[in-house]
């Protein structure tokens, strides 16, 4: 039986600070708790958070929500690629 301490986080998205925040908000609108990693440092000095500053902010969710979160991310990417 899993206890509440057996939560493992999985990365579901990485991008610039604005897009990562948008994905986090979309996930939370679906009832999925999401966390940003390196949101502050990725904004100020992105090359310290990721190689060459590319996709410095990461979005993490619980492994139990990973499949549902990936569907939200895929929909976001499909919608943003249409507008680009």
CATH topology: Alpha-Beta Plaits
- Give the strand line-up of the largest sheet: 1-3-2
Shape: globular
Enumerate the spans where pLDDT stays under 50 for 5 or more consecutive residues. Answer: none
Helix-and-strand structural type = alpha+beta
* CATH architecture label: 2-Layer Sandwich
Strand content: 15-25%
Would you spell out the secondary-structure blueprint of this structure?
Elements: E1 9-15, H1 17-29, E2 34-37, H2 39-44, H3 46-49, E3 57-62, H4 66-83
Antiparallel strand pairs: 1-3, 2-3
Structure write-up:
The protein is an alpha+beta fold. The protein has one domain: Alpha-Beta Plaits. It is 49% helix and 20% strand. The chain has helices at residues 17-29, 39-44, 46-49, 66-83; strands spanning 9-15, 34-37, 57-62. A three-stranded antiparallel β-sheet has the order 1-3-2. The longest helix is centred in the C-terminal third of the chain and has 18 residues, at 66-83.
Keywords:
84 residues; alpha+beta; globular; 49% helix; Alpha-Beta Plaits; three-stranded antiparallel sheet
Q: What's the short story on this structure?
A:
With 84 residues, this protein is α+β, with helices and mostly antiparallel strands. Helices cover 49% and strands 20% of the residues. The chain is built from 4 helices and 3 strands.
